[in-house]
Design a protein that fits this description.
723 residues; alpha+beta; eight-stranded mixed β-barrel; 4 domains; elongated; Alpha-Beta Plaits; Beta-Lactamase; five-stranded antiparallel β-sheet
């Protein structure tokens, strides 16, 4: 456009000033049309809703977005009344009155030069948020109206709220997490520290920032930590775990488990990101669990599992050429059950703890002392492989046990039986070494208390034989492979049997007929003696019923009652049941008990025997004279007969050895109105002397060996015939 504004000035009344008026009007119209076109383009392209109002509150212009945003009908805008349009806006808001007040204030405060642009955020009833802005149109300081813009900021607000919430969550997690986050420079300098470190390690974050992390890692582990950092410092973004001891603010060391990630190339982090947590208590718990898994809880000694692991290592080493030797000692506490039974299990526990402590003092620091069972201990001695060295160690152990253990205000004496196995190249398994030491210990146990036995191969052979015997014996009980033989007990008045002693035999399917000496010890050790004893009593009672003649008062059957049977709480009930099932008259059955069995816990035994006597059975004390019997108890036992041990019978003779002992026993029996049976009579001289000394009856090879049921029955029939 040509010319200047001064050239196209208009008169006050709007008329043309000169011949150039028509020429000026045409360019102005074009310019206004251009401006209007530009305004329409701007209004159409903006995402804001726009409403332009003149100074007389008339709608000058608006865009399609404004209409869409508020869904204003065309009829409202056709009126060109801004109040109507804004009232339509107000009707859609949560707070229409507040909006109206703010609009009214714009007009009343306009002359007061309010702060422009004026803005707020409106909330529609449908929950959407609209940002409103308003500012005046001015030309040369003159207000020509207002421009309103409306922008839907719902999604931006939601995004901003989500971001704020996310930031709050992040900060809360950082500040309250059990873990803490550290950012390190490449040289290990701490550049950022999360606040949660104070809860974990006691430091305020600012105390750590700027310090080298290597100052706080335990000196023994700095090298390992540096290696991790070196491996990561290659820009690869890799991560690696590391566990170190870290200095707590209080001076203690805590175990930290951390993951280090290389974010040196990250523009935001720009360092090594460390996520760490305190695992001290967890590691201590794991160590305790591991300790408990391999140690005895009572004595704190290694248990069987740890002992076997260490022994297995030595066995493996023993396969090498010329290996250093080792020795295993297996120990069992003698009569430990007596301590538990008399003083209680707490006292037994104290004894085991004291015994373990003494064993540790008997060996070197590198040797192993383990509790491998209830009252069983095992020692593993590396570098010892000779019997003499092992026996010297065993002697030290026995000597250490000589001093009493102070327990529960008492002095308790304890001894141990020891088995020794010498580690040699021929062992392939740790179990075999311990087994052989165990076998040797049981040999010591059988010999006497406080003994030591060094294993040899014959013991294993015997152990295998014992195992086979035990297996066969259990089958014998199931299959009832036992039979009874009977040895006559002869009256020294008429020379005829007054009774028979029932003697157990085992008809072994391979070895033939076995006497009790071949299996009774095993039966007692395995607990089979009780069922065998009851079977014997049942069978003897049946024979007694068949052979007994009341008019003759003979022959009775005598059956040995073992200490194990006597200790059974239902003994009297069992005997009563045997009599009922067999139908045997009580007087046809005699129960034999050895003097040692009778005198063990004599008070309780006396009460039991009194109850047996009430059943009507007779009692006979066997092997009399070999022990020590209180005369008071002997009277209370109310036995019907005493049986003189065959050791005394064997020594009576022409020169009168032991005759006085027999005469004393007979005199005692007469005083107590008891019969006397001489056992083991093998010669005519012994018979003559026993008759002279006053014995009432006798048994032994001079009369007859034990015979089977058929032969015994024949003898019984002859007794019936003669009498």
């Amino acid at each position: 456009m040509d010319g200047t504004p001064s050239d196209h000035a208009a008169t006050a009344d709007g008329s043309s000033a000169g011949s150039g008026s028509a020429e000026v009007a045409e360019p102005l119209a074009e310019r206004f049309a251009l401006y209007a076109s530009l305004l329409d383009a701007v209004l159409a392209s903006t995402s804001d809703g726009v409403l332009i109002v003149d100074e007389q509150d008339r709608v000058v212009s608006y865009n399609r977005r404004f209409v869409e945003l508020w869904a204003i009908p065309d009829a409202v805008l056709a009126e060109r009344c801004a109040d109507q349009a804004l009232a339509f806006v107000a009707d859609q808001l949560d707070d229409p009155e507040g909006f109206v007040e703010r609009v009214r204030a714009l007009y009343t405060d306009q002359d007061g030069d309010p702060d422009w642009p004026e803005s707020d955020t409106l909330r529609r009833r449908d929950g959407r948020l609209i940002e409103r802005r308003c500012w005046p149109q001015e030309v040369h300081g003159r207000a020509l109206g207002l421009v309103w813009t409306f922008r839907d900021v719902t999604e931006q607000a939601r995004t901003a709220a989500a971001l704020v919430a996310s930031e709050r969550r992040y900060r809360s997690l950082i500040e309250n997490a059990l873990d803490f986050i550290t950012i390190l420079a490449a040289d290990g300098t701490i550049t950022f520290q999360s606040p949660s470190v104070e809860r974990v390690l006691g430091y305020a974050p600012e105390e750590l920032v700027g310090r080298s992390v290597f100052e706080l890692i335990h000196p023994d582990e700095v090298g390992r930590a540096r290696q991790v950092f070196v491996r990561l410092d290659d820009g690869s973004g890799a991560s690696a775990p590391v566990e170190v001891r870290f200095l707590h603010h209080d001076g203690s060391w805590r175990i930290l488990e951390a993951v280090v990630k290389d974010l040196l190339g990250d523009p935001v982090i720009g360092g090594l990101l460390v996520n760490a947590k305190d695992v001290t208590e967890r590691r201590r718990a794991e160590e305790r669990l591991l300790h408990d898994a391999f140690h005895d809880r009572l004595t704190e000694l290694p248990n069987r599992a740890l002992f076997m692991d260490r022994l297995a290592q030595l066995v493996k080493r023993g396969r090498r050429p010329e290996p250093p030797g080792y020795t295993v000692l297996f120990l069992d506490v003698d009569r430990f059950k007596a301590v538990n039974d008399s003083l209680g299990h707490s006292a037994g526990d104290q004894l085991l703890m004291g015994l373990g402590a003494r064993l540790e003092r008997c060996v070197r620091p590198g040797d192993t002392v383990a509790r491998v069972g209830g009252d069983e201990f095992a020692l593993l001695i590396d570098g010892m492989a000779t019997p003499s060295a092992a026996e010297r160690l065993a002697d030290r152990i026995h000597a250490a046990m000589e001093r009493p253990f102070p327990i529960a205000g008492r002095e308790v004496h304890a001894s141990v039986s020891i088995g020794v196995a010498l580690g040699k190249q021929h062992y392939d398994k740790a179990e075999d070494v311990l087994r052989d030491a165990d076998i040797a210990m049981y040999r010591s146990k059988k010999l006497a208390r406080a003994q030591t036995t060094v294993f040899d191969s014959t013991m294993r052979e015997q152990a295998i034989a014992d195992l086979e015997l035990e297996t066969s014996l259990r089958l014998a009980v199931e299959r009832q492979e036992f039979v009874l033989h009977f040895q006559p007990i002869i009256s020294l008045r008429d020379g005829w049997p007054v009774g028979f002693e029932a003697l157990l035999r085992w008809r072994h399917p391979v070895r033939g007929l076995l006497a009790p000496d071949a299996f009774l010890v095993m039966a007692e050790d395995t607990g089979l003696l009780v069922p065998i004893g009851w079977w014997t009593l049942e069978e003897a009672a049946r024979r007694a019923r068949e052979w007994w003649r009341p008019e003759l008062g003979r022959p009775y059957v005598a059956v040995n009652l073992s200490a194990t049977q006597l200790a059974q709480p239902d003994l009297v009930r069992q005997v009563r049941g045997v009599l009922a099932r067999s139908g045997a008259p009580p007087e046809s059955l005699r129960l034999e008990l050895t003097e040692s069995v009778v005198m063990d816990q004599a008070e309780e035994t006396a009460r039991t025997l009194e109850r047996l006597r009430t059943l009507g059975v007779s009692l006979l004390i066997d092997d009399f004279g070999t022990g020590y019997s209180s005369l008071g108890y002997l009277h209370r036992f109310a036995a019907q007969a005493l049986k003189i041990d065959d050791a005394f019978t064997a020594r009576v003779g022409p020169n009168g050895e032991d005759s006085e002992i027999v005469r004393t026993i007979v005199a005692l029996a007469d005083e107590l109105e008891m019969e006397v049976v001489a056992e083991g009579v093998e010669t005519a001289d012994q018979l003559r002397i026993m008759r002279i000394l006053g014995c009432t009856s006798a048994q032994g090879y001079h009369f007859s060996r034990a015979v089977d049921e058929a032969e015994a029955g024949t003898l019984v029939e002859r007794v019936w015939e003669i009498h």
